[in-house]
Amino acid sequence: MSQSQDNHEVELAVDDGDDPRSEIGSSIVSSRTSLRDSIIDYRIENGRSYHRYKEGKYNLPNDDQENDRLDSNHQLWLITLDDKLGVAPPCEKNATVGRVLDIGTGTGIWAIDFGDEHPEADVSTYSTANLNEPRRLMDTGLTLHRRFMGTTYPPYSQPCEETFIVKIERVLTILHRVPPNVKFEVDDIEDEWTYSRPFEYIHSRLMTSSLSDWPVFLRRCFDNLEPGGYLELKETDIIPRSDDDTLNPAHALMKWANLLLEASIKLGRPYMEIPSLKQLMIEAGFEDVTMHVYKWPTNGWPKDPRYREIGLWNYENTMMGLEGYTMAPLTRALDWMPAEVDVFLIDVRKDLKDRSIHAYWPQYAIVGRKPQKEETPAAA
């Protein structure tokens, strides 16, 4: 599934069995996990809600639709990593882990999963947005969560019909309390960190376009790790690619990606060229830095069943979040009208659905270790 280091050389074969412009054959419904109490205020902009905390620094909505997308993105990573929560050593099933920090927490689903898998760990989260109102059942404080520990069941194991997924979602939704070893915090990750004790593992996901200064962020991660501790970054490249040139600059999908990049630069939190983060981690002091590269197809065009499944999930995830990705950056930074965004996204959706466009987004997991303390020489 992955390629270690800096290449994209795994080639995806095309599934020739379907009409390239047919409807996507399977619809994947996201899991639902959220936190207990509403701890941030929010405002409405162009029909979507956004957080007020450090208003304007985070360009994605914080409503149910966006939370569904974040949980779907979590499932995509689970499929990609063979049901593992990360590639760093603390994510091994038999690992014993101490203090853990999750950055870019979203709905909290990664932290909840990690706390479940590692009851010995002390898991903290650090997020500016999306820690919002819980989806409760009968005010019990229970949260919706659909991942068995160590088990993947339909619809996660294979694509299936939408009607079946809806039924399975209702029947097999599992109730979980937030584990007692997981706690949630809302703060600005770009402010000074005030932790009194270091962490053994820091996990950060999808922070590109949310940070104005990556070197400062990485140095804070380094300073807040214990010697021998690990930092893991999971990031996506906003620019899609194709290995057979079926995606070109004339496509609306490419125009969309470049517009988001332009807007992010104007907003002061640019989408990063993700491979450059490896060198920035080394410059921050990390050692044994490795980078794993994955491909998320835009839809179910690959012939390989696993990549096809990832493509189907990614199609649903992208379609779910497309307006949310686009509306605030283009209206705030590029002075588009909301109606212009809506019209433009019609063609972007057509490209996303088009199976003759063999596009994918590169995904990266970059891991580095803080060096062990040097031993103090014994006195003569």
For the report, how would you describe the main beta sheet? Answer: 9 strands, mixed
In percent, how much strand structure appears in the residues? 15-25%
Runs in which pLDDT lies below 50 for 5 or more consecutive residues are 21-40, 130-176
Terminal Cα separation, in Å? 53 Å
Number of domains: 1
Helix proportion:
25-40%
What is the name of the CATH superfamily?
Vaccinia Virus protein VP39
Q: Kindly report the average pLDDT value.
A: 79
Give a short overview.
The protein has helices at residues 64-80, 109-117, 162-172, 214-223, 252-266, 276-284, 305-333, 338-353; strands at residues 3-4, 42-45, 48-51, 99-103, 122-126, 143-145, 174-176, 182-183, 199-205, 225-236, 241-242, 287-297, 359-369. With 380 residues, it is an alpha/beta fold.
Features:
9-stranded mixed sheet, methyltransferase activity, about 30% helix, Rossmann fold, SAM-dependent_MTases_sf, Methyltransferase domain-containing protein, single chain, alpha/beta, two-stranded antiparallel sheet, about 375 residues
What does this structure look like?
The chain has about 375 residues and is α/β, with parallel strands linked by helices. The protein has one domain (about 5-370): Rossmann fold (3-Layer(aba) Sandwich), CATH 3.40.50. The protein has helices spanning about 65-80, 110-115, 160-170, 215-225, 250-265, 275-285, 305-335, 340-355, and strands at about 5, 40-45, 50, 100-105, 120-125, 145, 175, 180-185, 200-205, 225-235, 240, 285-295, 360-370. The strands form 3 sheets. Strands 1, 4, 5, 8, 9, 10, 11, 12 and 13 form a 9-stranded mixed β-sheet that branches. Strands 2-3 form a two-stranded antiparallel ribbon. Strands 6-7 form a two-stranded antiparallel ribbon. Strand 9, helix 4 (about 215-225) and strand 10 (about 225-235) form a beta-alpha-beta unit. Helix 4 (about 215-225) crosses helix 6 (about 275-285) and helix 5 (about 250-265) crosses helix 7.
